[in-house]
Write a structure and sequence with these properties.
heterodimer; A: 487 residues; 17 helices; B: mainly alpha; 2 domains; 68% helix; flat
Chain lengths: 487, 168
């Protein structure tokens, strides 16, 4: 599995990706999704394996990096680290920031490595299963993925579904891929090729965040001093090993579900850690179990989310949607054939994720203090720079100025979406699944000769439709559970 | 907790058309309706070529779904009003203004000049007054980005008064 990595170039890419991911994770507002989208144009100079290794190492390290700011300034560097704030910051306030970060680093690493093992075993099984899938099954699977959007984050499920439907709608702009008829182009030639993924992602994540930061200029972070990261004590290990393993399992499972990601995983990992704890009253006051529960789960979701991405071409999270785009841009078609025809490529990715988890452990353990200083870069300098990279990166993919306007439009739209409680992640997932949903639906209708009820005669498709109904009910169940846990 | 309730009450006391939930509902419905109407002008294909459904059918379905779901969230907001958001500060509008200036300059003068102007504008209005840092964000960094994209990625940027100095 590690053999493809024994090249100085790949190791360098991995090292850079991990460091860059940590920086992105540490900076509130940025994260692996935005960072991945920004770096995607730069990967064009790399071969496919190096490009995907770069993106996956950013994903793994960025997810962990969010914990550093969560512990030290009570602001999650990434949404997936929101639950880490609940106990990380109170523990840091007690003068134990090193212990809190040590626990976050160890549990993130264990969760991450656990999820890579899950990825290695389950992705090929799922890929084999995908050989049984026809167009109706893929359609039902995509619908399942979209209904899972209802439970992304802790916002309103209906708003998430609206955002998902909007994402699919964006994918219909341009020439219809089956009949070449223009849709929503309004005579603008550049729109005939459709709206690109990168302008939308960069707009919704980077530019909308820039606008959000423009409203928070008076915000002052209270920073807790960090002397050094401390490895957990024997007592801490005794207290948390079950929590870490449980959360690793939960995180990997949640990650495998289409469209779900680290944010949901960490919330559930945290609430389950509290439910099983012998000292639930300590949660929210600096419990190491709370930190372990949230961090193991969000990093475990990274490997889990790669399972449907690689095996089926259905993104497991927003960042894996960017990775999926990276695969497609580099001419790699995810799905069962990838496992059959390019196993070395996949082993390279698996190995890289494993090494990235070890690397961020080392960097986090020895360098958290330095990474924490990155948050000292003032927004008034950082964001104009991010804007310059966003604009050039967006322009570079198609060398189209229209893409830059689209990016700015989605930046403003994303700001207002977030302001009024609409998550932007479903838009991304909807956009990437849009073509699959429409294409498989239309082909299924041709196969069924226009009889929609025939979907119900296909057992796998029917199973996915039933799972979709369960997915729609899931946010209600989860919010009740989490509410009980926080009470 | 009290503050949240106060905010909710404040929002509920407003006439319905001033409430956030109505404004959001109205904008989504209006845009969806316009898009839905425009789908009726899409070309149609003969049945033998339409691959199951006409090209307009799928977007139509999506727009109807969006309208239906938006109506549901508006209905639910009667029971549970949204909290009132703080009004947007001046710095937000200045950032939006900088985007507009960026579009105008990049379209008419130069892509990199537009980046420089936006950077210095945003940095200044966000509170940066030190000349070195203003130069860093407006000249040094865009120059580094230009060199990187031009030389390493081999990208050709749109022509303009500054970019042409390099290209010609």
């Amino acid at each position: 599995m590690m053999a493809p990595l024994f090249s100085s170039k790949l190791l360098l890419v991995l090292l850079f990706g991990t460091l860059f991911g940590l920086v992105l994770g540490v900076l509130p507002g940025l994260g692996p999704t935005t960072g991945g989208a920004l770096i995607l144009p730069f990967t064009m100079t790399l071969d496919p394996l190096s490009a995907i290794i770069l993106l996956t190492s950013i994903y793994c390290a960025g997810t962990y990096g969010g914990a550093i700011t969560a512990v030290l300034i009570n602001t999650p560097g990434t949404p997936a680290a929101a639950a880490t704030c609940l106990d990380g910051y109170p523990l840091a306030q007690k003068g134990e920031a090193g212990r809190a970060l040590g626990m976050a680093t160890v549990s993130s690493t264990v969760g991450g490595i656990f999820s890579v093992i899950v990825l290695v075993f389950f992705a090929p099984i799922l890929a084999n299963l995908a050989y049984e899938f026809g167009q109706p099954e893929y359609f039902a699977l995509a619908i399942f993925g979209l209904t899972m959007l209802a439970s992304i984050g802790d916002g309103s499920p209906i708003k998430n579904l609206i955002a998902g439907a909007f994402g699919i709608l964006i994918s219909t702009v341009g020439k219809d891929f089956m009949t070449s008829i223009d849709r929503f182009t309004y005579g603008i030639n550049e729109l005939s090729v459709g709206i690109g993924f990168i302008p939308v992602v960069v707009g919704l994540f980077a530019i909308s965040e820039m606008l959000t930061q423009s409203t928070l200029l008076d915000q002052v972070f209270k920073r807790v001093a960090l002397k050094a990261v401390k490895l957990p004590t024997k007592d801490d290990y005794k207290k948390t090993w079950k929590t870490i393993l449980r959360s690793s399992g939960i995180g990997s499972f949640i990650g495998v579900l289409p469209a779900e990601g680290g944010t949901v995983a960490s919330l559930i990992g945290y609430s389950e850690a509290k439910r099983f704890s012998k000292n639930p009253e300590e949660f929210g006051k600096g419990s190491v179990e709370g930190i372990a529960g949230a961090e193991a789960a969000n990093n475990a979701a990274t490997g889990g989310a790669m399972v449907p991405t690689l095996a089926l071409g259905i993104p497991g999270s927003a960042t894996t949607a960017v990775i999926l785009t990276g695969l497609i841009i580099h001419g790699v078609r995810p799905g069962p054939d990838l496992f059959k025809e390019q196993p070395e490529f996949l082993y390279g990715i698996f190995g890289a994720m494993l090494v990235a988890n070890v690397l961020f452990f080392i960097f986090g353990f020895f360098g958290a203090k330095i990474f924490a200083r990155i948050t000292l870069v003032p927004n008034k300098i950082l964001w104009p720079m991010i804007f310059a990279v966003s604009v050039c990166g967006t322009y570079s993919l198609s060398q189209s100025i229209i893409d830059v306007w689209i990016m700015l439009f989605f930046g403003v739209l994303g700001f207002f979406m977030r302001r009024y409680g609409f998550s932007v992640v479903p838009v991304i997932i909807g956009l990437i699944l849009g073509e699959l949903v429409e294409g498989t639906l239309r082909q299924s209708i041709v196969i069924f000769d226009g009889n929609w009820l025939m979907f119900l005669t296909r057992p796998i498709a029917l199973t996915f439709f039933i799972l979709s109904l369960i997915a729609l009910a899931f946010p209600l169940i989860r919010s009740k559970k989490i509410k009980n846990s926080y009470d | 907790m009290n503050n949240v309730h106060d905010k909710k009450r404040a929002n509920k006391s407003l006439p319905f058309f001033f409430r956030t939930e109505f404004k959001v509902f109205f904008v989504i419905i209006l845009v969806s309706a316009i898009l839905l109407i425009s789908t009726f002008s899409f070309d149609t294909v003969p049945p033998i070529l339409n691959r199951g459904i006409q090209p307009a059918t799928f977007p139509k379905g999506l727009l109807v779904l969006i309208i239906a779901l938006t109506s549901i969230i508006y209905y639910l907001s009667f029971k549970k009003p949204w909290k009132k958001e703080k009004s947007l500060p001046k710095s937000f509008f200045l950032t939006i203004l900088s985007f507009i200036i960026f579009i105008i300059i990049s379209k008419n003068l130069d892509f990199f000049l537009a980046i420089s102007v936006l950077s210095i504008f945003v940095s200044y209005y966000w509170g940066e007054r030190r000349i070195f840092y203003l130069l860093l964000v407006s000249i040094i960094f865009p120059l580094v980005v230009f060199i990187f994209f031009e030389m390493i990625l081999g990208l050709r940027f749109p022509p303009g008064i500054i970019t042409n100095l390099y290209y010609y």
